[in-house]
Amino acid sequence: MVTTHNLGFPRMGRKRELKFALEKYWKKAISAETLLEIATDLRTQHWQDQLMLDWIPVGDFSLYDHVLDTSFMLGNIPARVSALPSNEIDSYFRVARGRSVTDDSACSCVHASEMTKWFDTNYHFIVPEFEKNTQFSLNPNRLLQQIKQAQQIHFQVKPIILGPVTYLSLGKPKDGVDRLDLLDDLLGVYAQLFHELEKLGIQWVQIDEPILVMELTQEWKHALRKTYYQLQVSPISLLLTTYFGQLQDNLQLACELPVNGLHLDAVMAKDEIAKVIDWLPNHKILSLGVINGRNVWKTDLNETLDWLEPIHARLGDRLWLAPSCSLLHVPVDLSSEQRLDTDVQSWLAFAVQKLNEIEVLAKALNDGRSSVAEILLENRTAVISRKQSNRVHQAAVKERVLRINDAMGTRQSPYHQRTLVQRKKFQLPLFPTTTIGSFPQTQEIRQARQDFRQSKLSEQEYHQAMQKEIEICVREQEALELDVLVHGEPERNDMVEYFSEQLAGYAFTQFGWVQSYGSRCVKPPIIYGDVLHTQAITTEWIQYAQSLTSKPMKGMLTGPVTMLNWSFVRDDQSRAETCLQLALAIRDEVLALEKAGVGIIQIDEAALREGLPLRKLQWNTYLDWAIRAFRVTANGVKDITQIHTHMCYSEFNDIMAAIAKMDADVITIETSRSNMELLDVFDQFHYPNEIGPGVYDIHSPNIPSVDSIIDLMQKAAQRIPTQRLWVNPDCGLKTRNWEEVKPALRNMVAASRYLSSTYGQGQLNLTC
Ligand code: GLN
Ligand code: ZN
Fold first, then answer.
1. Is the Cα torsion angle 527, 531, 532, 535 positive or negative in sign?
2. Phi-psi region of 455 (alpha: psi -120 to 50; beta: other; left: phi over 0)
3. Which residue CA neighbors atom 6 of ligand 1 most closely?
4. Are 527 and 560 in contact (CB under 8 A)?
5. How far is CA 740 from CA 227, 415, 477, 580, in A?
6. Closest ligand 1 atom, residue 435 Cα
7. Cβ neighbours of residue 283 under 8 Å, at least 6 residues apart?
8. What's the 333 CA to ligand 2 centre distance in angstroms?
9. If the chain, 768 residues long, is cut into consecutive pieces of 10 residues, what is the mean pLDDT of each piece?
10. CB 639 within 8 A of CB 662
11. Are 382 and 358 spatial neighbours (Cβ–Cβ below 8 Å)?
């Protein structure tokens, strides 16, 4: 019999119950007990959704992030937090967000830990911190309680644990510690944990070591060997789990490690499976992740069975089936959707449907295809309908992509020439201040948008409501004396969805939320067909905002690579091809803004880095087409039009050369949480254009002081000529409230004024 299991279920709930509970808790509208009760109910619901499986997962749920949970389970809490007398939940949120519900005053806040993306997904985890004197100690209660809860629902419970080597590799060495020096101590704690799990009758543990799909040095390979040789004395069966890519040169290592089973991403590493079967000792089970946990498309079940049947014949009971990775990265349940086009809906599968697919595949293997004949026929019909649909293919779009040439992606003059024209036009001070685009999305804004969607507001009323919000935002920015203003993006629910709603080729869900970080979710739109710009999207709003002020108003767009990386994309053509279609569509919008008299245009590429392949060898291929797409989008404008781009992440160093090739006049980046460490790259790399390193951590409710901003900018000024520096927050302000934003920006402007007076007139003259 083929065994079925899952690598993780979405946490938020069908209606994002966890998000709302967390946010209420942070606002003190509910108690910690209520929050934990809601979490318990959600887990129960999730396990009930997975009862068709032989093994249900536990340990995949988290109040904020599973890597942070792992840090707490291993007793690895940053000293600045553990030094404060506190209970666990307060410490937990202090590490996650810089404050707990008991921290009312700014002085009791601490630095939150850094947050970074989980491999090549849009999920962000809290980066563990390591120091030379880091000592681990087991704190397993959260997991043990959840196991007990799960055991009441299903008799086969499989805990999911982040493997020790991946855990160390994801963390940040704070004081130059070699993370692998901590491995021995850490392994002792894992051994203790397995002992505790055994006491609860646990038989299988899924131990995730996704670093096996990355390039590994000898030291890290050795660490994997050492870890699993030491842990093999454990009484529990270990299912060593990788996902998100191929094993490549780690294939033999993965097959040989002394564990009881191996899970592979059989979507991305499909070509490797035959080799793995040859290598895998025959006492080990092989779990194949045959259902794509990263996209929303129905699996072609018949084709998958064609491939699986011979494997099943060879492996028999040793074959397990699962999604390729945790289903954290897909929405919960397609049956919640009421408004999708019926064709498109028939092509899709969300988490619950994907688990049903696993069940069908297992049944077809166990009992023969005839036992699920009807479902297989229905699946075949859907797959063919998608392939042949003329809603998917538009000849004119494909032809326009073929006609793209280099000139379309090249500015008329190089930066050093066009900057002179732009400086003359905009007359900005040294250290000009700006923001990244969005301002607080207040309850009124959300309400108006919802009322409009539900036809409670007419189009005209909605327009007026948004204009009012834009006006408030412009007036506030004028009062704050910011230099380059924005309209505040009140009309945008989400930076990708907003644009995609007005492009052909996209479909939208009502409840297709996916966790991005903490309580933040995104609802990626679905690119199902060729993408086309049919009308100007933003010009009217930006022109209106500009009409309210004599200061320059920045037009705000989302770039093609971010549109791609934050959408669910087609699996029937290359990402590069889809990206160029998006580039042409956004280029049309850039040119429409320029024509409408907008002098500064920001094209956000928040997610450019996320698309990087996990292996460095493949980076250049990706960067080549991604940067080409950005250039096609941005560089058709005149010299006098100033192009900004924005990226929200701190690991920047390794792609700086590619980013410089985008040739944006100004780039704003996230830096404040890393204390400008990332700017070290400017010691080696001479970034030719203007840059605004973020000085306000918008992921935290804390307000940066004038001194802290000056300090950060002084660090930046040591590496970058002051006439090319801007002062801005790390990212958009939509998740913050005005009470935080106003003082933070006031401090930012004060810091900028101080800096421009200290760095002085002489430098200003240089640039004029
Ligand atoms: N312009 C967007 C905003 O300010 C950028 C968001 C982002 O980079 N994630 O909200
Ligand atoms: Zn950002």
1. positive
2. left
3. 732
4. no
5. 46, 36, 14, 39
6. 4
7. 260
8. 29
9. 98 98 97 98 98 98 98 97 90 94 69 92 96 97 98 96 98 96 98 97 98 98 98 94 98 98 98 97 97 98 98 98 98 97 97 98 98 98 95 94 98 98 97 98 94 95 97 98 98 93 96 96 95 97 98 98 96 96 98 98 94 94 98 98 89 86 96 78 86 93 96 93 96 96 98 94 43
10. no
11. no
How many of the other CB atoms lie within 10 Å of CB of 222?
Answer: 15
In degrees rounded to 5, what are phi and psi of residue 88? -65, -40
Q: At what angle do helices 459-480 and 738-767 cross, to 10 degrees?
A: 60
- Ligand with the closest atom to the CA of 565: 1
Ligand 1 near 372 CB (within 6 A): no
DSSP 376: H
The span from the CA of 536 to the CA of 549, in Å, is 22
Q: What is the pLDDT of residue 493?
A: 86
Q: Is the CB of 437 under 6 A from ligand 1?
A: yes
CA geometry: angle 356, 389, 622, nearest 5 deg? 75
Report how far apart, in Å, the C-alpha atoms of 710 and of each of 270, 608, 672, 718, 760 are: 52, 29, 12, 12, 15
Which of 122, 436, 561 should be mutated for ligand 1, with most atoms under 8 A from CB?
436
- Joined together, the tokens standing for residue 353 give 């449907």
Q: Say whether 720 sits in a helix, a strand or coil.
A: coil
Three-state SS at 601: strand
| Spatial CA neighbour of 257 closest among 265, 247, 266 | 247
- Is the Cβ atom of 5 under 6 angstroms away from ligand 1? no
CA-wise closest residue to 443 among 27, 13, 14, 15: 27
For atom 9 of ligand 1, the residue with the nearest CA is: 606
CA-proximal residue: ligand 1, atom 8 (nearest):
606
Atom of ligand 1 nearest to the CA of 646: 8
Active site annotation includes 699: yes
Q: Is the CB of 495 under 6 A from ligand 1?
A: yes
Report which bound ligand comes closest to the CA of 604. Answer: 1
Burial class of residue 619 (count of CB atoms within 10 Å of its CB; 0-12, 13-18, 19+)? middle
pTM across the whole model: 0.91
Distance 607 CA to ligand 2 centre (A): 8
Tell me the CA–centroid distance for residue 732 and ligand 2, in Å.
Answer: 6
> Which residue has a Cα nearest atom 1 of ligand 1?
437
Question: Which numbered atom of ligand 1 lies nearest the CA of 437?
Answer: 4
Report the b/e string of 172-205 with b at 16+ CB within 10 A: ebeeebebbebbeebbebbeebbeebeeeebebb
Distance 648 CA to ligand 2 centre (A): 4
Evaluated on CA atoms 308, 313, 315, 318, the torsion sign reads positive
Is 606 near ligand 1, meaning CB less than 6 Å away? yes
Best mutation site among 473, 495, 609 for ligand 1 pocket (most ligand atoms within 8 Å of CB)? 495
Instruction: Tabulate helix, strand, coil % of the chain (nearest 5).
Output: 50, 15, 35
DSSP state, residue 106: G
Coil, helix or strand at residue 191:
helix
Query: Residue 476 belongs to what H/E stretch?
Result: helix 459-480
- State residue 104's pLDDT score: 61
Quick check: CB of 555 below 6 Å from ligand 1? no
Nearest ligand (C-alpha, residue 741): 1
Element (H, E) at 356: helix 351-367
Spatial contact of 73 and 139, defined as CB atoms under 8 Å apart: yes
d(CA 404, CA 402): 6
Q: How far is CA 513 from the centre of its chain?
A: 12
